[in-house]
Amino acid sequence: MPEIKINKFMDLTTSFAGFKLKNPIIAGSSGMTDSVEKIISLENAGASAVIVKSLFEEEIIYEMEEQKHSMSGRFFVYPETFDYMEEEPEEDSVRKYLRLLKEAKESVSIPVIASINCVSSQKWTYFASEIEKTGVDALELNAFILPSDFHRTGAENEKLYFEIIQEVKKHTNLPLILKISFYFSNLAQMIVKLSETGIKGITLFNRFYSPDFDIDNLSIIPSYVLSTPEDLPISLRWIGIMSGRVKCDLAASTGVHDGKALIKQLLAGANAVQLASTLYHHGPEYISVVLGELKQWMEYHEFNSIDDFRGKLSFSKAHDPAAYERVQFMKNFRKFRR
Ligand SMILES: Cc1cc2nc3c(=O)[nH]c(=O)nc-3n(C[C@H](O)[C@H](O)[C@H](O)COP(=O)(O)O)c2cc1C
Questions:
Q1: Considering the entire predicted model, what is its pTM?
Q2: Which of 19, 185, 192, 234 has minimal CB crowding within 10 Å?
Q3: Ligand 1 atom 8: the closest Cα is on which residue?
Q4: What is the dihedral of CA 293, 253, 235, 21, to 10 degrees?
Q5: How far is the CA of 299 from the centre of ligand 1 (A)?
Q6: Distance between Cα 235 and ligand 1 center (Å)
Q7: How many CB atoms sit inside 10 A of residue 193's CB?
């Protein structure tokens, strides 16, 4: 695409979870959002909202510390636990977290969204009211019930998500955003049902850190924690399938590393897009580069606002929805030659 002059009245605003955001780029929850200074620099770089680093439901930190070199016995770990391995016990972390939220909220004018990484609807849910008192704008629940418990049925696992939402809602009026994985037997129906619970947004998807094997030392080691651009297709597919079919907004997460990926997610129908790994690679200032690519592309295609093209390639609006389907898959695999 040739370099072109940008129409200065271009409208990049989007709505997500009840907010009017100045553009679709949200800084996703990660170590890049774990201090007031970083949050200020993300705002200065152009982020339209920030999701603060998650607070964990349980005392996973110490357990992780014990295991950080061997990783044995763990089949999946949240990447976020790595950021916490040098930190203090939960009680202190909780106090520190509430202070961080309050100070972040006082320091920036973009929406500040808290985040809790949870695996149950027990005990911790009262924290939602403490979080609300800090003045933050919303709460993202990074709920992941790993379907690796041999004694729990799929239905029991799924019920837990609804219980978490129900319990948290008892303690706060903050807009809730649910961040999920794709480990569901009937993902489409699950996302629709979750969207009908009164939550304001769903983030598709969290990214799991998977184990790797050191074949020289015969041990289990952490694999690379950051995503790559090749990780985009899963969330792109599901944003595309679900947009226009849910009762809340959708944010895309995982594999968005540049302006092209951002544009793709918007074409799929995302209301907003979260960045994490690419901010680790390039720093917060990269947000303005990604926004620049979006503006160039919009100018080239003569789109004046995000709404002019959002969802154009979603399953429900695309001219060729079959491109999402098995038939396309079969066609492409038959033709594929080395
Ligand atoms: C080092 C690291 C720490 C993260 N910490 C959190 C976290 O605390 N809470 C959370 O919800 N997601 C966390 N994530 C996941 C990101 O928010 C994001 O969903 C995921 O990395 C996929 O997006 P990306 O491809 O832009 O990295 C973390 C990711 C990384 C790489």
A1: 0.88
A2: 185
A3: 54
A4: -60
A5: 31
A6: 14
A7: 15
Residue 227 CA: nearest ligand 1 atom is: 25
Among residues 275, 324, 265, which one has the least CA distance to residue 297? Answer: 265
151 burial via Cβ count (<10 Å: 0-12, 13-18, 19+):
exposed
Could you tell me the pLDDT band of residue 207, with boundaries at 50, 70 and 90? Answer: confident
Give the Å distance between the CA of 78 and the centre of ligand 1: 8
Helix (H) or strand (E) holding 274: strand 272-275
DSSP structural state of residue 32: G
Positive or negative: CA dihedral 239, 243, 247, 249: positive
| Cα 29 to averaged position of ligand 1 atoms, centre (Å) | 6
Mutational test site, ligand 1, from 26, 61, 80, 250, max ligand atoms within 8 Å of CB: 80
Averaged pLDDT for residues 10-31: 97
Number of CB atoms found within 10 A of residue 60's CB: 18
Instruction: Determine the pLDDT at residue 66.
Output: 42
User: Whose CA is closest to atom 22 on ligand 1?
Assistant: 254
State pLDDT tens for residues 261-270: 999 999 999 9
Taking the CA of residue 82 as reference, the ligand 1 atom at the shortest distance is: 1
How far is 235 from 256, CA to CA, in rounded Å? 10
Ligand 1 centre and the CA of 264: distance in Å? 20
Interaxial angle between packed helices 259-268 and 286-300, expressed in degrees from 0 to 180 and rounded to the nearest 10: 60
Please, are residues 206 and 144 in contact by the beta-carbon 8 Å criterion? yes
Q: Is the pLDDT of residue 319 over 90?
A: no
Count how many residues are written for the chain.
Answer: 338
Alpha helix (H) ranges present in the chain?
36-45, 60-67, 80-84, 90-107, 127-133, 154-171, 187-195, 232-242, 259-268, 277-282, 286-300, 326-335
Q: Cα(218)–Cα(245) distance, rounded to whole angstroms?
A: 47
